[in-house]
């Protein structure tokens, strides 16, 4: 993975793709499938929604950092499989043959993904919302144009179709550097 | 629009589409384009991220309700146009020829959309996050299978492409009634 502009990092999350989130604390690490997330601001901050029923939650609380990774469309079966089991007794990286590399923090980057954002936890809300500060973004140049995956939530998934550029209509609303 | 199962309402939001959000208070109503949103739980609760720079914010604070509407792919230019101007001095429903109908609360449903969810504000967080309780969902049967729109955030938009059903792999994780 190559460093990616932190100003543009929100563009990895804003389209609403399925994410894989990695966490780590002490000798433990985990990866979970995450579809409940949003951009909060351009700094960039993000919010995710999850809870103590996930093993990753424990590592997120203990470690205070995570990686939000955007998997390409051809990872669909892997993404579902990661979401179906708990990491409490299984190292899902080994089990699903997920290649990793080290970023700034303990949770690993997922090499085969489109992009990754390393985040620091700013706050846990009692409603199960976690506020994250994006600290370092990464892009996989070989995967940058891969379609993303979107979960419908009922077992159906949709991958990105036609793309169109309306930048000229929106120029005045785009943040600096984007 | 026809009533839609509230248990399934989160499936309108989980794929991460661009939304139009309607608000109303007193004699004023507004509609804004919203790409920063997520599901919070299956009850269903949702979170959105916005702030006082939007006219809709004022109506959301005053009225305490909103409609999250999912526009079909062929609304892309309308969605961008709605996002480019403020409703403070313009009735965007009239200006952009948006057909509406009345639901349970004051903010109108958008008839031409794929689906709508009427929500009540549960809480405003100082970070600009608003927690919403979905109260009533609606589906447009003529538009139910339309592709959705996803914003990249830099002026590019992507519409839904291929869909696939992996329900059989995920059956044990799906919530009741979905």
Indicate the structural class of chain A.
alpha+beta
The largest contact between protein chains, plus residue counts on each side, is: A-B, 58 and 58 residues
**Oligomer description:** homodimer
Query: What would you give as the CATH superfamily of chain A?
Result: Electron Transport, Fmn-binding Protein, Chain A
The low-confidence runs of chain A, each spanning 5 or more residues with pLDDT under 50, are none
- The tally of structural domains of chain A comes to 1
According to DSSP, the number of beta strands of chain A is 12
Task: Please render the helix and strand layout as text.
2 copies of one chain form a homodimer.
Chain A (H helix, E strand, L loop, with lengths): L1 E3 L5 H4 L5 E7 L2 E7 L2 E5 L3 E5 L5 H9 L1 E6 L5 H9 L7 H4 L4 E2 L7 E2 L4 E10 L4 E11 L9 E3 L4 E10 L1 H4 L8
Antiparallel strand pairs in A: 1-10, 2-3, 2-6, 4-5, 5-10, 6-9, 7-8, 9-10, 11-12
